[in-house]
Every structure is written in structure tokens, then in C-alpha cells.
Amino acid sequence: MIEKLWGGRFNQPTDKFVEEFTASIEFDQRMYRYDIQGSIAHAQMLARQEIIPLEDSEKIVAGLQSILADIEAGNFEFNVSLEDIHMNIEARLTERIGPVGGKLHTGRSRNDQVALDVRLYLRDEIKTILGFLDQLQEAFLGQADSNLETIMPGYTHLQTAQPILFAHHMLAYYEMAKRDASRMRDVLTRMNQMPLGAGALAGTTFPIDREWVAEQLGFDGVTRNSLDSVSDRDFAIEFCASSSILMMHLSRLAEELILWSSADFKFISLTDAFCTGSSIMPQKKNPDVPELVRGKTGRVYGNLISLLTLMKALPLAYNKDMQEDKEPLFDTIDTVKGSLKIFADMIAQMSVREANMRGAASRGYSTATDVADYLVRKGLPFRQAHEVVGKTVGYCEKTGKDIPELSMEEFAQFSPDIDEDIYDFVTLEASVNARVATGGTARSAVVREIARARAERKG
Ligand code: ARG
């Protein structure tokens, strides 16, 4: 039987099933690097403050480094009866360097240790996520660059509304991804305070130097209240909330990609690498990747609700409930990373079927608003102009014509204010390129926004 690190007051061994039930080693082992990094800084601080002798600290640090090497080489067996990553590493340390290993936990508790480890781990993962977000933003800009002449129907209520540039549509997602990145950076800023030194909950009786440890570990400062330090999981919740918004954005794009690649739209093709076939219907090429990302959005929302519910009404300070924070957090990290990475590649490689987009834009009377705006410029109040164009569209529906195909005589039936120059306003290009105000779909406005995006990414 393995000796428990906390076994002193116990007379009976832990029930085998209880041991398995309460253990977190199956999932918290992924934090090993950060647990060791935190322990090394702590051990060095203990020596600097003369809480333990320098030679003991050096032995501890060397021992921890050799454990790190073993884990990375796959030569470390994690043991369920040692419950979690913290005790697995500490027990191995003492096995390796003798009783001096037991000095590492001076002035520290697993409660502040785990608070530190999760922050260190999440901090690195957010940096990776920011890298993927950056690649995705680049993919949107790349598609925008190549589609400055591609006109598609813009929709409201999924009904043809007004023509837009496909580049403009891509830039809409660029803006969302930019806000997602800014939310992730906010999470990083707020969470970057060092909790170690809180001990179990009240602080420690040893003369520790928290600020020095914080500096070693790249924190901006130290947490200011020991109870809060070991109780706070806001940062994990904030990360899951930002991830939920991010996934909501990806799910909207996923839905559009699924629609656009269908036989009814035929606006885009996804490369074969991102699709699969059907085992029965030979003609099928299914957009599995966007479908899965759309589906995975659900588990990310679920993880946010799990964490909020987990923390709800928990009394201060640490409670074992909080061990349950890890799986939803880790699952969110994995899902977001995977979804971003695959979307960045898929968007970059997606091909656009320009003629089909254009064809769809020229159906559905997408330039009707331009006729109304034309009449307003001739002095008609907008509501009246709306009425006139409504009747014109009714006529088009009956005769099977589109607005630019109407003759002057036909236009004249609806308003005496319509002149020959109407044809300069009702083409798709004219409609798009009239929307020049900042944020509009005119080619000139879109070119400006691409340049602006590139400049802000450099700067
Ligand atoms: N495995 C635990 C967790 O993840 C570490 C902290 C345990 N502290 C305690 N007093 N049982 O929350």
C-alpha cells in the first residue's frame, strides 16, 4: 500500500473505490509541467528566505527537474492512490531524494498550489488560442483580398436583401474574431495574479516572498486576499464565457458554410480534406468539419454552465467540489483549439464559386432598395418611394423579370420620376459600390478596411 502524504491522523486505509472516486490524476496530470515550474520557484524562494537550507532547495530543484524529464520521456507512472498531480510528483520527489523532499511543501498547501497550476496552465493555453485566432483572422483577410469583385446576395431573414461583396462578408467574421481575441486577452490580464502563499486559506506563518515568486513565474503581481486566492475560479469561468462567444461565432460561420456548400446554393466548395462521403449515397460530399464545429458549440456552452453551477453558493474557501473545475475547463480548451485550427485551414483553402453567387444576387430583386433611394433623391418621401418600388416588384414577379430588365415604359407605370439614368443605379455593381460610408460594402470601403486591418495587425 502506498503511504498517503496526509495519512498521519488516519487509522484505516482508504476504501479502494473511494480512492478512485476522489482522485483527479486521470485528468489533472496534464498540468505536470506547471506543477513542477511552480514548485521550483517555491523551493528557490524558501532557500532565499532562509526557510530551508540552500543545499536542500538545490536537491529539490534537481529532483523536480529529473521528474519533469521522466514525465516528458513517458517514464512516469501516475498512481491513483496518490490522488492528484501534486501528490504524485511530491511522493516521487521524496522517493528520489529522500526525506528532504518533504520540505518542498513548507508554507504551501495544495489549495494554493492548484490555484497556481491552473492559472499557469490556462495562461499558456490562451496564448496558443490567440495564435490560432490570429491564423483564422489571416484566413478571413486572405479570402477578402481574393474576393473584391465577388458579389453575393446579402440576406436578412435568410431572404435575399441587398447585394454585397463576399469580401465584406469575410470581414464581418474578421471583426468577430478580433473581438474574440480581445476578450481572451482580457481574461489573461485579469487572471495574471499569483495566488501562491495563501496556504490552505489564511496565509502562512513562514516569512515567504510572494512577490519574488510572482516575478519568477511571469505574473503581473500577487493576489491580495488569501481566502479569495484559493476560492477564486472566476478566471476559468471567464475563459469559458469568452470561449462560448467565440464558438457561437464559429457556429454561425459553420452554418453558412454548410448552406453555401449545398447543391441548392453552390456558393463555395470545401476541399475534399475537410469533407467525407456517405456509405450509401455515392454523390454525397458532406461538410463534416463545419457540422462538427457547430455541434461542439453545445459542449462549450455546457462547460460554462457546469462551472457556474459548480461554483454557485460554495462557501469560502476551498471545497473539494472545486476539483470538478478541471474537466469542463480542459474540454473547453481542447475544443476551442481544435475548432480554430481546423477552421483557419478550411477557410484559407475554401474556393468560391463566383458565378453562382452572382446569379443568386441577381434573383430576388436585391436592388429594390436602390430604386427607392433613387426616388428619394428625386424628392419623394421614403415611405412613398417604398410603396412605388413594392408595386414595381409585384409587377416583376408577375412578369418574371428582374428590376434591371424593365423597360422605361414599364418603369413609367409606377412613377413619373424614374428617368433613363435609373439603369446606372440598379446593377449589382452600382448597388454595392454606392455604399461607401465607413463599414459599407462598396469595394472602396472594403479595400480601406482590409488595409486598416493589416495595419492594426502589424502595429
Ligand atoms: N486535486 C485537488 C483539486 O483539484 C487539489 C486540491 C486539494 N486540496 C484539498 N484540500 N483536498 O482541487
Q: Brief description of this entry?
A:
This protein is mainly alpha-helical.
Number of strand elements:
6
Distance between the termini: 59 Å
Q: In terms of structural class, how would the helical and strand content be classed? A: mainly alpha
The largest beta-sheet arranges its strands as 1-2
Give average pLDDT, whole number: 96
Could you name the CATH homologous superfamily of the largest domain?
A: Fumarase/aspartase (Central domain)
Strand content: under 5%
CATH-assigned fold name of the largest domain: Fumarase C, Chain A, domain 2
* Helix residue percentage: 55-70%
Specify the CATH architecture of the largest domain. Answer: Up-down Bundle
Note the overall shape: elongated
Count of helices? 18
Instruction: Tell me about the largest β-sheet.
Output: 2 strands, antiparallel
**Bound molecule types:** arginine
Please write the CATH class name of the largest domain: Mainly Alpha
Task: List segments where confidence is low: pLDDT < 50 over at least 5 consecutive residues.
Answer: none
Number of structurally distinct domains: 3
Helix/strand order? HHHHHHEEHEHEHHEHHEHHHHHH
- Could you tell me the radius of gyration in angstroms? 31 Å
